[in-house]
Amino acid sequence: MNVLVINAGSSSLKYQLYDMNNESVLAKGRVERIGMESSILTHEVEGQAEVREVSEILEHTTAVRKVLDMLTHRKFGVLRNIEDIQAVGHRIVHGGESFRESVLIDDEVKLEIRKLFDLAPLHNPAHMMGITAVEANLPGVPQAVVFDTAFHQSMPPSSYLYAIPTVLYRKHKIRRYGFHGTSHDYVSKQAAEFLGRPLDSLKIVSCHIGNGASCTAILNGKSYDTSMGMTPLEGLMMGTRSGDLDPAIVPYTINKEDLTLNEVNSMLNKHSGLMAVSGISSDMREVVQAMEEGSDSARLAFEMYAYRIRKYVGAYAAAMNGIDVLLFTAGVGENSAVLRKRVCEGLTFLGIDLDENRNEVRSGETRRISADRSRVEVLVVPTNEELLIARDTYRLARNRALTDTLGD
Ligand code: AMP
Fold first, then answer.
1. How far apart are CA 313 and CA 296, in angstroms?
2. Closest by alpha carbon to 284, among 227, 330, 219?
3. Is there a binding annotation on residue 211?
4. Which side of the chain, N or C, has fewer Cβ within a 10 Å radius?
5. Which residue's CA is the closest to the ligand 1 atom numbered 23?
6. Which domains does the chain have, with CATH numbers?
């Protein structure tokens, strides 16, 4: 079965086509600048030169049609015709409390996703455009939705409630949802497999450290607590996001700087974090380079970033009354040995003992970076959210096909 994975944004659409017989990626690419002048489609097939096509793509239905044209292109394509796509999986940022797992799309599911627009105004409407665009281009093909929040629906109320009037939860569903769930789910399963230990016997702290960053306490395979909150602003310090701060700073800044609420919101999301403290970049590579060249502000940004991860690891070890596995994933987590070292240096009291040579090894594979004597396994696990979306979609579409056959 071939599964097309779609991640639709408001002006972009990323895709990966999987052959689920061997979980290989047949092709991948993205459409950028949808609705703007000179939209760009970039298409990649392993072993071939990247193809770039500039054209006018005004909305998502045309974007999907262009992607399908490319996938079936005489020269650059990998499929004979579009009937060779048997299912489509969509990444959806917010599933609220309605979705605890991935599901196949029907009218009811679409209605629920629409109801969640308020909670994710930047993301969910764009995902919906992707779903509608696929429906228009591939009528009758089963589509699944995989939610960034679903994995965290296992959290107990003591983890997900804020200590504010509970009427706000009852009326407006103000609570912690958590994000990067697809990634935390995927890497924790990979870790258990790598260690040859049952997932439901492990206490894992998973650190997804990319442009956005979150830590999750995974107890017996289920999310027990996570650092992102009602939105992806809470928790760790990130590339451009502040992470945790005293909420009283918001009204205080509005008064002192004569800013609007929107301006402060934008400051906390887009002009804070590594970028703001270093004054150099939101990209950890550039911050580390500047630090090594002697920049004090880069060093401070790096120290704050590592310190906050360390605090969450400690907090989550306490939350689970122990830790068996500490794992790092995503852009920074997978690639920055110096960051991993700094985080782990202050955690020896927990039984975390890094092997410096293993930590320096670069590889695209899951690997152990702790010393043999370390009580806690420290791993680097490359994340692959698209593959998890493809797997869930494949499972749901195959089950539907089986049920349909039995019903005939
Ligand atoms: P992601 O959001 O997972 O795609 O991660 C993107 C981030 O990973 C970039 O902003 C970089 O800061 C970071 N990154 C990628 N490669 C490296 C590296 N070699 N060292 C440090 N950070 C890196």
1. 26
2. 330
3. yes
4. C
5. 332
6. 2-147 (3.30.420.40), 197-385 (3.30.420.40)
Q: Which of 148, 185, 324, 392 is catalytic?
A: 148
For residue 2, name the pLDDT band (cuts at 50, 70, 90): very high
Token couple for 9? 């944004």
Q: How far apart are CA 206 and CA 325, in angstroms?
A: 8
Tell me, using a 6 A CB cutoff, whether residue 273 lines ligand 1.
no
Structure tokens at 348: 């020896």
Per-residue pLDDT tens for 258-274?
999 999 999 999 999 99
CA 306 to chain centre: 20
Q: Is 82 marked as binding a ligand?
A: no
Is the CB of 383 within 6 Å of ligand 1?
no
- For 275-344, the DSSP string reads HHHHSS-SSHHHHHHHHHTT-HHHHHHHHHHHHHHHHHHHHHHHHTT--SEEEEEHHHHHH-HHHHHHHH
pLDDT band at 408 (very low <50, low <70, confident <90, very high): low
From 205, 185, 182, select the one nearest 319 (Cα to Cα): 205
Flag whether pLDDT at 406 surpasses 80. Answer: no
Tallying the residues shown for the chain, one arrives at 408
Label residue 402 by pLDDT band (50, 70, 90).
confident
Using CA atoms, how far residue 51 sits from 21, 275, 285, in Å, is: 26, 33, 28
- DSSP state, 400? H
Taking 3-state DSSP, the helix, strand and coil percentages for the chain, each rounded to the nearest 5, stand at 45, 20, 40
Please tell me whether residue 183 adopts helix, strand or coil conformation: helix
pLDDT digits (tens, 9 = 90+) for 59-105: 999 999 999 999 999 999 999 999 999 999 999 999 999 999 999 99
148 carries an active-site annotation:
yes
> Is 210's C-beta closer than 6 angstroms to any atom of ligand 1?
yes
- Residues with Cβ < 8 Å from 1, sequence gap 6 or more? 20, 21, 86, 87, 394, 397, 398
Distance between Cα 336 and ligand 1 center (Å)? 8
The pLDDT assigned to 120 comes to 87
Return the CA Rg of the chain.
22
List the 367-368 sheet strands across, edge first: 222-226, 213-219, 203-209, 325-329, 377-380, 367-368
- Average pLDDT taken over every residue of the chain: 96
